[in-house]
Structures are given as C-alpha cells and as structure tokens.
Amino acid sequence: MPPTLASLVHHSALKLTVRAGGDRLDVPVRWAHASELADPVPYMEGGELLLITALTLDAEDPEAMRRYVKRLAGAGVAGLGFAVGVNYADIPEALVEAAEHEGLPLLEVPRRTPFLAISKAVSAAIAADQYRAVTAGFAAQRELTRQALSDGPEGLLAALASQVDGWAALYDASGAVVATAPEWAGRRAARLTADVELLRERPAPASAVVGAGGGDDDVERDRVELHSLGTGRRPRAALAVGTAAALGTAERYALHSAIALLTLTTERSRSLQAAEQRIGAAVLRMLLAGEPDHARAVAGGLYGELLDAPFRIVVAESASAPVGAVREVGGGAVRWPTAGALVAADTTGDPLGGLAECLEAAAARAGEAVLVVPERERLVVLAVDGGAAVGACEEFAAALEQARAEVRGRGADAPATSAAASPASLGSSASASASGDEDGLVVGMSGPAGPIAAAAAYKQAEQALSVARRRGRVLVGHEQLAAGSVVPLLADDAVRAFADGLLRPLYEHDATGRGDLVASLRAWLSRHGQWDAAAADLGVHRHTLRYRMRRVEEILGRSLDDPDVRMELWLALKTTAAVGE
Q1: Which pTM was predicted?
Q2: Which candidate in 24, 191, 444, 525 could, as Cys together with 464 as Cys, close a disulfide (CB 3.0–4.6 Å)?
C-alpha cells in the first residue's frame, strides 16, 4: 500500500511528532512538497504532505492561520509538516489550533531532519509500493495464465475474482452470460446484459464503468467495469468485473492480464479463421457432390459428430439479390448469387453476418458444432437437427418478421424499429435489418437429412428460399411446403396475369347479367364434373348447368373434357380467389 502519515511518523530516522489531527494519520501520501508561498494551493494536486518553515507566513496570527489551513484542507492536502528551530522555535499555537479545527494533520519536523530526508522517505515508500504492485501483478498474470491453460476461461475467471476480491463474468458475442465466478454472481451478471449490448455497439477495445458502489441493490453496491474482448470491429465477447471499490494497481495488472488472455482465447487470428472457412467450404462441396467419406476425412474432428448425425441445411441471402448464375460446386450444378456486395461489415448493416453470429453463439453455448460457409451475398449453414442453432435461426427470423411488420405499420418514413423489437439474446441485428424490409434477409431451411442426402437437402433449402422470397417471408422451412398448398406458390404476377387473361371472358359474360358462368364452373370443377351434385350446390337444374358448361367451352374455345384444361381453370379460379381475399 502507498505511504501514509502514520508510516512517516513511525519512521525512526525522521523523528516526526504529531501536533494535530492524530486521528487522520491513515491518509495516503502521494508526494512530499516544500513551499513557502503564502498560498500554495494553485500548485497542489491533493494528497501531498506540505513542508514549510513559515518564512513568509505570520504563523502567530489566528485569523491568517485559519484562512491558510482551511485553504489547504479544501485542496485535499494530506498533512502539514512544520520545521521548528528555523523561523520559529516551536509551532505557534495559532497554527496548531487552526489545524485541529480543520482536522488537518500537523507534524512537527525537528531541525536535524531536513525536508529532503522526508521527500526521500516518501519517494522510497512509493517506489516500494509500486514494485510490490508490479510483482503482485506478474504473480497474478502467472496464476491467470496457469488457470487459463488448465481450466479454460472458467478457471481464469475464478482466479481473477480472487485477485480483485470480487466477481467476474464472461459474455459471448450475443451478450449472453457464458460463465461467472463465483457462481452466485450469475444473477448480477445477467442484469448487466443491456449495458453489455451498449458496449458491443462501440468498436473494440472499449470499456465502461457501471455504478460506483454504495447503492442498496446487489448490483448497485458493486463498482462494475465492463471491457469488450476482440481486435476486430465487432467485439467477440465481453468481461465484467465487480468490486466493492476502485481497483488498485495490483488488481489493475490482474485485470489487464485477464483481458489479454481472454482475448487470445476468444479471438481467432484472421488467417486461422480464413483457413477454417476454406475447410468448411471444401467439406460442403464434398457433401453436395455425394462424397461424405471424403468430407469426414477433410473435416477430421473440426465439426464433431455434425457430419454423422441428422442435420439441416440453411441457405440465407439478401432478398434483393438476383438468383444468380449456375456455378459448379463439388461437381454438381448449384445456384450461387453473383451480384453486389454486403452493405457494410458491421452487424447493423450486414443481416447475413448478424445471422451467422447468432447461430454460432447459440451453438457455442449449447456445445454443439455448426458449419457456416459465407459465399458473397449468400450464407450456407449445416446445423444439428433440433439443435440450438436451428432454434436460434427460427427465433432470429421471427424477431425480424415482427420488426418488419412494425416498420411497415408505421409507414415508410418512420424510423427503424428499436432494439426492443427483438429478443435481447439476438442482439441488435434483427431490428436493425428491419429497416431494409423485404430488401433484408431471406432464409430457406431444409428438412432433416444425413450426409448421403446432403445434395437433396440443399435443393430443399433452395426451394424453401425461393418460396420465402416470393411470399415476402424471412424464413420458410421445407416442411411448410410439403404440408401446405401449391396455390400460394403460384401467387406471383405472371400466374395472376395468366389467370386473369384466361377467365376474363367469363367474367365479362357474367357482367352482362346473362348467366353465372364463373360460379357454375367453380362448382362443377369442385364436384369433379358430377352434374347432379354441382347443380344442387348452385340450386339449378342439371340441364341448366350442362348448358352453362357448353357456353364456357364456346367462350374459352377449350374443351372441358381435357384434364389439362380443367387443371388450368381450377388453378386460375383459386388464384383469382386468393387475390380477391
């Protein structure tokens, strides 16, 4: 600890005597400074032991001494050292009384003790304290490194919490709590997720202090420091450290060592990340080419059991991107987009990056493997069927759907949806992407598949992606296509134009009041050409219905005996009915 007035008084070589303020000798001394100015306050920083001989002071004037001492106390001076036997044989009572009144420690310095000796003693004590802090810091660094190597981030957090006599918490890229030490700190750490979210919006490295201690609440009683971890534009994690008071020098060394070690464990080098992406792309190509054994050999243990267990393939891209040219992947023809680049490198302008970050964070928390392959405006993901990454993808899409709906509800000129529109665990990506509306993210998800059926699963995901784009949806799963109707898949401008052109003559005929051919055709087709049942539905005689169907054939120039004609008419009727609804 730094030197105090008490340690100087007990210094055997200095022979200092306490004349006032004996109850405040535990005040730290930042420096010892000699000044004979009548008002040295403008040159003081606080925490100094001021040494004087009263060369320019009327130390026997009570009023002058009260003003002088009050100024010193107000400036935060730690104490006043008065040298006797120079200008005054003893410390004047006026100065002693003023110091007692203000509670300012007053030390008597004997003539045989030069001020330089006091300055050297203070300097030596400060240097010794700094040396102890540095030594303790190196010891803490060794201990933190040992724990990080043996027990990972959890062991490092436990060692850090012990070093700072407080608690520590680690957050992942999405702002969710990954680990805490001690365990009871989990509740406090969880209540800081909003502050972590704000910190993540700033380029790394960034830090913030939450609270200064002294509150009634558990968290408010702590002084919490937040630090982002990472070297890129977006932090990959965050560290929170809660203590009862501000950190000292040794504790600060320990904290900085922990930040460096956690950064090494959470931030992969760019070359390593690029290499993993190349491996992932190669594994994907082999799977799509029907070579699962080769894919497993290349992947090794990188993706755990992902390539053996049932998985789903997720294909995501910018909804405004063109379908793109056909590109050869693994020997098979696979569609890849070709136009444009990502809007920005950060999460708020990169919905694909936000989705990838969300899925990777969810998989990491669940301890499951996930394969993420970015390809220009497209993202391809292999995720465990029923796993955390698939669930996070669905939650991300649902939050983005809700945010888009709110943006559309407020109108095109309204500001973008706030972060509250999406779950906190998804970060700000979903709500920020909503401002782009249908020009944002679109996702297709396959059904469960194994390595042998990877190519079929990829085709399913692309089909679902195409339907999602047509419907203006964020996410469509392949099961939704199999369980639904084919009619909504035809609801685009070309099909509507075909249906309108095919049925327009019948609608024009009915508009003259000469019959109800459209309704009659719908009833007859719905009854599979059964005259009596269809006529009963319409409330007319079957001969009347036969006459109307002949008129339909005459007007359209098509035979209702042709099954293709009946199919086209039925789909046209369903399409126009959907438009009318």
Answers
A1: 0.49
A2: 444
